[in-house]
Design brief:
Elements: E1 2-7, E2 10-16, E3 20-24, E4 27-36, E5 43-49, E6 56-62, E7 71-76, E8 82-90, E9 93-102
Antiparallel strand pairs: 1-2, 2-4, 3-4, 4-7, 5-6, 5-8, 8-9
């Protein structure tokens, strides 16, 4: 997925690998990778929603919180019962959504 953002008139292109969400006991592990355009001052907002419309911030991560493999990770220790829709927000642009169900679920992706 490619995201092009213009900051102060300068285009910035960021290429992401897919966002992955997996249950791990009672938590949800989120992983994503930036393959191009990553800079230490990049800010990512990890967000969650029940309906895909209203999102809440779970974490704010900086671009330098990357592991040795170039991947970003976040663990949602308290997912809601049912459908949890996650997205990564890069400053003012959104990139990928992923659904992970805890307990009962009605979404079509699980």
């Amino acid at each position: 997925t490619t995201v092009e953002v213009t900051i102060c008139g300068n285009p910035l292109i960021i290429i992401f690998d897919d966002l992955i969400a997996e249950m791990a006991g009672e938590a949800v592990n989120l992983e994503w990778k930036v393959t191009s355009g990553d800079i230490p001052s990049t800010i990512f907002f990890v967000q969650r929603s029940e309906d895909g419309v209203g999102f809440e911030n779970l974490a704010i991560m900086s671009g330098n919180e990357v592991d040795a493999n170039g991947e970003y990770r976040f663990v949602d220790l308290k997912p809601r019962l049912g459908e949890n829709i996650y997205r990564i927000k890069f400053k003012f642009c959104f990139y990928l959504l992923v659904c992970c169900c805890y307990g009962r679920c009605r979404c079509r992706t699980c």
